[in-house]
Each structure stands twice: as C-alpha cells, then as structure tokens.
C-alpha cells in the first residue's frame, strides 16, 4: 500500500488554501498513492474565532470537503482529510475539529471529531485554548479500509495512550495522527510520541502535519512543527518529511503488523489489566 502524506502550510483563508491542496492530491495520485492523507485543519489555520465564524461552513456546505470528495472519485483513491474546522449546531457556537475519510467513490466512509482539546500554556508566548473554539468529540472511530482498520485521531489525542490502545484492540492496524503541532512541543515530543504509539499498539502510524509560518489576515500568525511522519509497528521511522510543504510518499507492508505483534504480543495475548 502506498501512502501519500501532504505536508501543508495552510493560511486562514480556506478558498486560497484549496487549489494548493488539490494540486498536491493530483500529484499524489499520479505517483500511485492508494491513500492520501492531509493534516489537521486542512481548510483553515487561524487563531481568531471571529475570523473562523466568518469563513467556516457546516459540513454539507464546506467547499474543501466537496472538492476532496470529487478528487477522490476522479482519481479513485482513498483520502483522509486530517481535519476540517467546521461550523456546527452547537448552542455555544463552537466548531468541530473533524477528521473525514473519503472512499474511492467519493462517499464519506467515516468521521471522527477530535476528543482531546489542546488547552495548554506551552510558554509565556505560546498559549492555546482549543476548547474555547471547538466542541470536543465523544466517540472513538475505527474505519474499515481495504488494508484493515484505521484508528482515527487528531493531533493532541496522540498524548492519550489509552485511546490508541483501545483503537488497536477494536481492530485498528493503522492509526492516523494528523497534526498542527506547536514548534516547542514538537521539537521535544512529536517523534517520540508517534514511535511510542506505534510500538505500544503494533500499528502503522500515519501522521501528516502542518508546517512553517501560517499567514493570517486576522489575529496572530501561527508556526507549526512539520515533520510529517510514518512509523512502522516495530517503531522504525519510515518517513520524516522535514519542514518543506509538499507530497511525501511511503510504501507500507501491512504484514508487518502481525509480525511485530507476534514478536511482542503486548496488545493482545499478554494483556491482563484494563484499569481500576
Ligand atoms: O486551532 C485550530 O484551529 C486547530 N487545532 C490545533 O491546531 C490544535 C489546537 S491549538 N493543535 C494541537 O492540538 C497541537 C498539539 C500539540 O502541539 C501538543 O500536543 O504538543
């Protein structure tokens, strides 16, 4: 199976971001990718709630989603939109941070709303209150694909190891971790967290990331860590995309999942304790 991770530097303008994303999808399809993955908030990286209110749409009217569904059908490939920021019917006006899997007919195969909100003071200058803008999801999702179960997560979820273990126990052989990681925590934690999740679960970890300096017409600009990554179930880093935007390909042999789990059966046979 050939995966293509699209590393993006999205701005806060969904209309301006879309042509670049679609050009990368075309490139990935031409390179023979079976599954094309994009980062968290593919449509809009913004720090301004007012701006988001003005530019975001609910799922049925989101132009990025419509265009990606058409692209999946045109190329007959699977596409995982790492996430879209979407309007919802939430009475408090909060958005959804929603990961969406599209099948090769262009139909939506699965959805996952990010569960863990990044409400963190990383440093004096880097503070995040994701829960002020987004409504957290409440349901974990393992999507069925031709290559086996795909456990869907988003960004900060990567720090909650039990979610990933649960996804693996529910049948995941791949975990998607689309991200817009902060540069400070990225440098310290990103790779080791992804490798830990892969080793603990015996899953392939597919982690497409936002990278670089994100242009913003409103509010403060943001920087992200980049380093989109694929990690094998034994823990090897198969792909580290560095910090340049673009299409990054990685060939994956799903037989490695059972091989790793047979060598160290921590996810199935040797499990004894499921919490208090
Ligand atoms: O804000 C949006 O529009 C979309 N959401 C994000 O970019 C989120 C919240 S700010 N980013 C993360 O979860 C980074 C986690 C991270 O960096 C860590 O765990 O260290």
CATH architectural group: 4-Layer Sandwich
Task: Estimate what percentage of residues fall within beta strands.
Answer: 25-35%
Let me know the CATH homologous superfamily: Carbon-nitrogen hydrolase
What is the 3D form? globular
Q: Using only CA atoms, what is the Rg?
A: 17 Å
Which percent bin holds the helix content? 25-40%
Low-confidence spans: none
Q: Encode the helix/strand succession as letters.
A: EHEHHEEEEEHEEHEHEEEEEEH
Strand tally is 16
Termini separation: 39 Å
Class by helix and strand content?
alpha/beta
Mean of pLDDT: 96
CATH topology: the name is Nitrilase/N-carbamoyl-D-aminoacid amidohydrolase
Question: How do the strands line up in the largest sheet?
Answer: 5-4-3-2-1-16
How many separate helices?
Answer: 7
Distinct small molecules bound, one entry per kind: N-(4-carboxy-4-oxobutanoyl)-L-cysteinylglycine
List keywords for this structure.
2-oxoglutaramate amidase, Nitrilase/N-carbamoyl-D-aminoacid amidohydrolase, single chain, 276 residues, globular, binds N-(4-carboxy-4-oxobutanoyl)-L-cysteinylglycine, six-stranded mixed beta sheet, 16 strands, 7 helices, alpha/beta
């Amino acid at each position: 199976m050939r995966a293509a991770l699209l590393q993006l530097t999205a701005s806060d303008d969904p209309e301006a971001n879309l042509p670049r994303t679609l050009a990368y999808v075309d490139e990935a399809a031409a390179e023979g990718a079976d599954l094309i993955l994009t980062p968290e908030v593919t449509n809009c990286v913004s720090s301004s709630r007012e701006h988001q209110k003005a530019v975001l749409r609910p799922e049925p009217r989101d132009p990025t989603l419509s265009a990606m569904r058409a692209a999946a059908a045109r190329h007959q490939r699977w596409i995982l939109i790492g996430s879209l920021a979407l309007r919802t019917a939430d009475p408090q006006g909060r958005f959804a941070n929603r990961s969406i899997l599209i099948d090769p007919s262009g139909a939506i195969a699965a959805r996952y709303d990010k569960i863990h909100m990044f409400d963190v003071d990383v440093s004096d200058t880097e503070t995040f209150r994701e829960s002020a803008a987004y409504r957290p999801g409440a349901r974990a999702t393992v999507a069925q694909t031709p290559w086996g179960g795909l456990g869907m997560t988003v960004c900060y979820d990567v720090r909650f190891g039990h979610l990933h273990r649960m996804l693996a126990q529910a049948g995941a052989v791949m975990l998607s971790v689309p991200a817009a990681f902060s540069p400070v925590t990225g440098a310290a934690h990103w790779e080791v967290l992804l490798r830990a999740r892969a080793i603990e679960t015996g899953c392939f970890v597919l982690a497409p990331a936002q990278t670089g300096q994100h242009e913003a017409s409103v509010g403060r600009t943001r920087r992200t860590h980049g380093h989109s990554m694929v990690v094998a179930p034994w823990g090897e880093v198969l792909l580290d995309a560095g910090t340049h935007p673009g299409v990054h390909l990685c060939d994956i042999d799903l037989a490695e999942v059972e091989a790793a789990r047979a060598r160290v059966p921590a996810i199935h046979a040797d499990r004894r304790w499921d919490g208090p």
